[in-house]
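Structural prep section.
Before we set up the soaks we want a predicted structure of the protein with adenosine-5'-triphosphate in place, mainly to decide which crystallisation condition to try first. Input record follows.
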Amino acid sequence: MRWTEFFIPTTKETPADAAVPSHQLMVRAGMIRQVVAGAYSYLPLGYRTLRKIEAIVREEMNRAGAIELHMPAMHPIEWWEQTGRVEAMGEVLIRLGGGGRDDWRGRTVLGPTHEEVVTEIARTFINSYKQLPINLYQIQTKFRGEARPKSGVLRTREFLMKDAYSFHACKEGPGGLDETYQKMYDAYCAIFGRCGLPYVPVEAESGPIGGDASHEFMVPTEAGEDYLVQSEDGKYAANVERAAVHPLDDAQDGRMQPLQEVHTPAVSTIADVSKFLGCAARQMIKTIIYEADGAPLVALVRGDHEVNEGKLARVAGVSKVVAATPEVIRKVTGADVGFAGPVGLTARIIADQAVTVMHDAVTGANRTDFHVTGVNPGRDFVIAERGDIRRAVEGDRSPHGSPLHFRKCIEVGHVFKLGTKYSKAMEATFLDQNGKSHPMIMGCYGIGLNRIMAAAIEASHDEKGICWPMSIAPFEVVICALDVREASVTNTAQRLHDELCAAGVEVILDDRDARPGFKFADAELVGFPVRITVGKKGLAEGSVEIVERCGGEVRKVPVERALSEVREQVACLRARCAVKT
Ligand code: ATP
Ligand code: MG
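Run finished without errors. Recording the tokens verbatim:
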């Protein structure tokens, strides 16, 4: 391919709203163009990379036994009503709009994901255990009414997702959900590995199913909106919502102060009370009233900690906890909001493990405008239920005791054991060997293709531009022909180009009549992994130059050896993106 016959509108302008490197570099390299907030055109160079990612994803999904199909972006809202997700999705679910019951527009949504549509297919065509398991996938456009599309193609309102959905008659054993889940997990490792991403699989919040029911694949980078928590010994990784922590050591020295009520007029927040009483936030017990399954549930955490509602729900054995209303709080504590405490409280209480080792703590007195000091768990209130119910913080240790570190990251993929949530709601059932009907057991597995592209840039760029992993570079090699008015230069460049193409290498020949510095800058901005420079001066000595984009030295190579040298280098860079099986 000749540069002058292709379309690479590079630019020096960085869009004012482009805050992250991938956004800036994709625009500057002429790969994308914003159409409206949250939707982009992929220009030819960008589209080449996207298609390469798509090919890798498709290959690995097929290899893992998933079957490709294609579902539409338009869905009947009825199916979303059946699963209760019109409400759950809120603004994310984009409706076509339109008035009146009979107006089809008003009854149609643009799919942010496809559980409903695929479950309807399973419900219609699968009725026997003999047809299970099956794993269906597509690579398709998703629409989400994201509140703030930002960071270029990392978060958009229209994006390409590979989504797979598996259906099973059982959870464990041959053909069960666990087996396919593991296959998908392994396929994801292969996909991200092949795309050259420094990915980390982490345990993710899995909701009511619990256990190892969900993993996210994270790429650590400053541009990310998520956090992953990793132990120093490398044995533990989870997302911040999920991260489990080691219990804190008992700091008790045996002496205890007496319990004492103190007047704290209109002082109710942790910050205000600690200031008013001159104690540290960590010396306070935060008492938060929730409601779960229609009953009050009281969570106790240290004043400087936050309740993790997902963990709390799991420890409590309920599907969800919601913050109690002021009326309920008043009823449970007998006081205004802000004065709750465990002493004398009769509701169900779950204490975080860090609270169990506190002593001489400060907490609400269950009396408006009063707190109590000298509170000692065990002596002043009974801890009937305890567990890990708080968010991990810097300084915590993993369940195995290794220090935890927080890193910003981008979620590029997610595997999830759904269980029977959708099959029950949509009555997707099958008959077992005995002719008994059961809801199918499901898993779902998503990957954001555009996000892979941006994450690869975030993970690999420098001040000059992108450093593509070989596997997803728009072209593998660029040949910069420096003096295009010299026949010797154009002939040599063209011959090298043709020979490399014949050898199966993807080459672009920069045949523009421009200054060397300008061409090099573009080549580095776009980030072709290997550059060959063919110039008059070099040719006079019978040599060309070869340089790797990622930090390689410029090497002078005799013209006759150039082809074999480049082929070798390309093979080596390709191998770096190959997964070891
Ligand atoms: P996030 O937490 O970032 O909003 P999500 O958990 O809602 O993502 P999933 O529903 O798990 O995302 O979707 C599967 C994959 O689709 C994600 O791992 C991500 O790679 C991609 N993805 C999700 N939302 C977007 C978006 N708005 N723009 C681009 N890619 C997205
Ligand atoms: Mg997710």
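Observations: The longest strand covers residues 404-419.
Flagged for discussion at group meeting.
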